[in-house]
Amino acid sequence: MVNKMKDFVITADSNCDLLNDYIKEKNIGIIPHYYDLEGTTYGDEINLEPKEFYDKMRAGHMPTTMASNPEVIRETFQSYIDQGLDILHISFSSALSGGCNNVMAGARELCEENPYAKIIIVDTLNVSLGEGMFVMKAVQMKEEGKTIDEISSWLEEHKMEFCVRFTVDDLFHLQRGGRISKTSAVIGSLMNVKPILYVNEEGKLVSLSTARGRKKSLSTIVNDMFESMGKFRDEHDIVCIAHGDAVDDANYLANLVKEALPHKQIVINYVSPSIGAHSGPGAIGLCFMGEKR
């Protein structure tokens, strides 16, 4: 008798910044990350609309963030195990949040308690729609008939080809999060300097260069993307744009990409509040496939 291959579910966390319609259509399980604003904790049943969240930040309210809840992780994964499903979980960078370690610990416990369960965790070492692109690739491969092991192996092997370029509008949010010094924030703001950041091989957000002024910073991250794409420039794949309530700038960026790469599909969405708490209103990022991070 031939053993039938178990079906599996693809899960991620709320930091993947995928469009809600896509999450529903593809039945992606989402583990929430949390943020606290004005004494209210958001992430489970209660959530702010992104625009409302960023407007509160603009008004001076400073949110704090929390990683995923171990109990919620257990309940979510156990519900899939009870349905006879294996789990492929795609996680936000372990270098920037404790969420990945929480998921790994929960998975270990559940696999000990449920000997026939399989839970594979992919630490993307990536952020926002950079993480989301891992999910989209996993979904595509699943729809092509690939197994959970084939997909996770491919993602691990090609992890460093998922690239992110980021710039922020307000340096003081980076300073508050310990990314730059207060002196750098003050001087940079006075000189209208915008940092260009990228997610490195260790999954950390680090400085790449600077640009003078907003429009220059946007054209710089597009140029950096072109230089890093290499063989992926001609692929008919996806370029993602994540923004902290900067719709006009996101559309401007999309037009720059379309002019040079008309064959690319472009996905635009908000940076989720649990990331936006650190990057602030006006942050904007490009996520793409490239030969080097």
Structure notes:
It is built from eleven helices and 13 strands. With 293 residues, the chain is an alpha/beta fold. It folds into two domains: 116 residues, Dihydroxyacetone kinase, domain 1 (Rossmann fold, 3-Layer(aba) Sandwich), CATH 3.40.50; 129 residues, 2-Layer Sandwich (Hypothetical Protein Tm841, Chain: A,domain 3), CATH 3.30.1180. Helix 10 links the parallel strand 11 and strand 12. The model has no long low-confidence stretch (mean pLDDT 92).
Number of domains: 2
Distance between the termini: 47 Å
CATH hierarchy class name of the largest domain? Alpha Beta
H and E string? EHEEEHEHEHEHHEHHEEHEHEHE
Q: Mean pLDDT, as a whole number? A: 92
Largest sheet: 6 strands, mixed
What is the name of the CATH architecture of the largest domain?
2-Layer Sandwich
Question: Which structural category fits the helices and strands?
Answer: alpha/beta
By CATH, the topology of the largest domain is Hypothetical Protein Tm841, Chain: A,domain 3
| DSSP summary: helix tally | 11
| Number of DSSP strand runs | 13
Spatial extent as radius of gyration = 19 Å
Question: Fraction of residues in helices?
Answer: 40-55%
Sequence of strands across the biggest β-sheet: 10-9-8-13-11-12
Strand content: 15-25%
List the uncertain runs.
none
Shape: globular
